[in-house]
Amino acid sequence: MPLLDPPKLPPPTTIVADHNIPAKVNRGTSSGLPIGAIIPRLPDHIDLDFAMQNAVSLRRWNQYFGTVYHQDLPKSPTSPNLEGARGDVALDYAMQAVVSRDLWVRFQKLAARTSDIAQEQRFWKAMGETGAKWLIERLSEPREMHELWQVGEILAAMSEQFPLILKSLASQESAQTTQVLLSIVGSIGSQFTNLSTQVSSILAQYLSHPDDAVRSQAAASVSGIDDHSALSLLRGALCVEKDQDVRLAIEAEIELRSHN
Amino acid sequence: MLYLRVVRNYKKFLGPTFELPEAIKHLQSHDGSPLSVYVVSGQAAASRIITLYGMAFKARPEQLDFILIPEEVLIKTGISTRPDPTGFTHPLMAQTHMELIGLETPGAPEMFARAIAGANVFGKRISKNELKDLAQNEIADPALKDAAMDLIKDKPEWSFLHD
């Protein structure tokens, strides 16, 4: 748990500790350091499990946010009456606001293996459907590819959100988002045999997508369905595919399954 | 000198299949962060870097697209490089990892994208099977094996490399 990362930023601001602050943070203040120096970037430094268990109030999250970003938490357009919120509700909202600022820094750290992917996965699982939707929206932004794959890896670990991922794929306009989501389908789709018809239908849809990189990815993602269905889809796609890269991807998947 | 950039679809950057909006999107600086490239001497060195990159950043072997941008394109467009100060990559790639400086100004990504499309730029999609083979070659070198295996620790879908 990177609770006490080197206090490089931002300008420290003293906050009077109270019982609403997570215990590990309070232990920091007992050392005499201002809290702003101890938790300069919230998502890395908060003990999320503790915060959820101990019903930290939105007022307290707001104070943290003000310390780090020098402004209030953004108001929720959909839930204006969060003033007295505590626990999960407050955490969900506050974390979204905070993480929207820090997500890519966090994923850079994941890529560099200087932060813990298990902790990151726990956090996003706790964020539930709201978190998954938010992550999927981020995938269409201009970003480095390795950052997008980190988001994909987190989403793949949120297996309970797989139906949401399929729903998003079914009507997806961004080729970039589609590629990451198809990769997730290839990674965890086989766990959802009850959704195999839907998965097959989506893969068929993307095997005829205008973008060749998406078609290649769709070919590789047949690992998300059974071999019989996969072979049927792949052979159909190969009959009409003209792009050499995509043909190679399809042929490789056919060969893999022909030996099974 | 060539600069390797990992992209979503290499064909969007090359002359006949060039697509300006996609190329610009992928050459935009976001949040003020410089773009990431790897400096390589040729296609063999590029294969090695893309392999290590795949091992480092992909949860499982999958296709990877990249382009190799000649140094002349950077000179022509006034884009410069500097060593990555954040050191976010694995030590095996750190010496080659650079940041592109100069894409923050309005119009610069478009100018850079057009210069790439008009130059002799090499692009390729490494397939899943190619990446697996390249990774196996990488760990066959006893001097590099431990460091290369470190890239895929805790990644079950790369476990074939342990065999």
Describe this structure in words.
The complex is a heterodimer of chains A (260) and B (163). Chain A is mainly alpha-helical and 260 residues long. Chain A contains 14 helices and no strands. Chain A is elongated and about 60 Å long. Chain A starts with 22 loop residues before the first helix and ends with a helix. Chain B has 163 residues and is of the alpha+beta class. Chain B has helices at 20-27, 43-57, 71-77, 91-94, 108-117, 128-140, 142-151; strands at residues 2-7, 35-40, 64-70, 80-83, 97-101, 122-126. In chain B, strands 4-5-2-1-3-6 form a 6-stranded antiparallel sheet. The N and C termini of chain B lie far apart (36 Å). In chain B, 42% of the residues are buried. Chain A binds chain B through residues 104, 108-109, 111-113, 117, 141-146, 149-150, 152-153, 156, 175-176, 179, 183, 186-187, 211-213, 216-217, 220, 245, 248-249, 252, and chain B through 6-9, 11, 22, 25-26, 28, 30-31, 33, 35-36, 53, 56-60, 62-63, 65, 86-90, 125, 127-129, 154, 157.
Short description:
The complex is a heterodimer of chains A (260) and B (163). Chain A is an all-alpha fold and 260 residues long. Helices cover 64% and strands 0% of the residues of chain A.
Poorly predicted spans of chain A: 1-46
Query: What is the C-alpha radius of gyration of chain B, as a whole number of Å?
Result: 16 Å
What topology, given as strand order, has the largest sheet of chain B?
Answer: 4-5-2-1-3-6
Q: SSE order of chain A, as H and E?
A: HHHHHHHHHHHHHH
Class from secondary-structure proportions of chain A: mainly alpha
Descriptive key words:
heterodimer, A: 260 residues, mainly alpha, 14 helices, disordered N terminus, B: 163 residues, 7 helices
Q: What is the secondary structure topology, with strand pairs?
A:
The complex is a heterodimer of chains A (260) and B (163).
Chain A: H1 23-29, H2 35-38, H3 42-45, H4 48-53, H5 58-69, H6 87-111, H7 117-138, H8 145-157, H9 162-170, H10 175-188, H11 196-207, H12 212-220, H13 227-240, H14 244-258
Helix pairs in contact in A: 5-6, 6-7, 6-8, 7-8, 8-10, 9-10, 10-12, 11-12, 11-13, 12-14, 13-14
Chain B: E1 2-7, H1 20-27, E2 35-40, H2 43-57, E3 64-70, H3 71-77, E4 80-83, H4 91-94, E5 97-101, H5 108-117, E6 122-126, H6 128-140, H7 142-151
Antiparallel strand pairs in B: 1-2, 1-3, 2-5, 3-6, 4-5
